[in-house]
Amino acid sequence: MKTKKILCVLLPAGILYACSAGKDGSDPAAVQLLEQSQAELDAGNPEAALRLVDSLYSTWPAETAVLKEGMLLRPRAMEMLSEQGIARCDSAVEAAKAEIERLRARMKWVNEKGMVEGFWIDKDAYKADFFNTTGVQARVSGIGQFYIVSSVNPGIGHTSVSVSAGGGSASTPAVPYDGESNYRIGGGEVITFSPEQSDTIGKFLASQGGRGVTISFNGKGRRSVKLSAAAAEGMANAWRLSEAMSAGRDNDIERQRLQRQLELARTQQQRLAADASAE
Predict the structure, then answer these.
(1) Alpha helices in the chain (DSSP H)
(2) Beta strand pairing call for 119-122 and 107-110
(3) CA separation for the pair 107, 120 (Å, rounded)
């Protein structure tokens, strides 16, 4: 049944239309548009083929015989488009997995008693007494969200963090003291910045290669410290890990969508083949 369905459509572009519409007086321009669409599909360009089919439908709505051929061509183009997209997603997922594996080898998973959730952090950046110091930790949650935590001890009333290097800079937005995201602990103060508030810091550090980075804590007072190249690169790697995890997840979701689209295109082809056989 499948062979009967595509018998006409798989012919070379020049004689495609002769199967069913060459002798019915259809407009030659409509026939040419259909043949161009078939040629694009034969060349492995399903997006171009679909654009031409759409143009065929909008420009020649009365050319029913030609449109019937276009209706057969559309699910074939969707099938090819889906297959190409799945291949790209598979490649991207594999690349993300390799990057995640590479970066996690440099990370430590921390999930201590009393913590709401664990996180990944650069092995050398982890300090059990972090909240008794002045500094910044770049963390990645279990689901791949990058965020930073700042600690200033003794406190200066800081509400934001900025980094500078190479003539450029990036900053978080201000997070006022609220006892939750910005809170006090002992003689110091801690801010947990959300992923959205932290992204500019990670992206900036990833572009600097760890060289000459200064981090500043801003608020009622201001305090600045130099980051070692290793510390800056550790923070950048946390951001890269988050990006890789996000890319892997997004491409996996997209692959699932494309798989459903592929199955739909094949189902449509089977239905059209059955309809053609019944005529």
Answers:
(1) 2-6, 28-42, 46-59, 64-104, 195-206, 229-278
(2) antiparallel
(3) 6
Q: List the beta bridge partners of residue 189.
A: 152, 184
- Do 189 and 155 form a contact (C-beta atoms < 8 A)? yes
| Residue 269: alpha-carbon gap to chain centroid | 30
Task: Convert the pLDDT of each residue in 182-226 to its tens digit.
Answer: 999 988 999 999 999 999 999 999 998 878 899 999 999 999 999
Reference 108, options 90, 127, 93; nearest CA is 127
Average pLDDT over every residue of 90-109: 98
Cis peptide before 154 (omega within 30 of 0): yes
Q: With 80 as the cut, is the pLDDT of residue 164 above it?
A: yes
Which residues are within 8 A (CB) of 145 and not within 5 positions of it... i.e. 6 or more apart? 195, 242
List pLDDT tens digits, range 101-113.
999 999 999 998 7
Instruction: Fill in the DSSP letter of residue 166.
Output: T
Domain boundaries, the chain: 2-100, 106-251
CA atoms within 13 A on the CB side of 272: 21
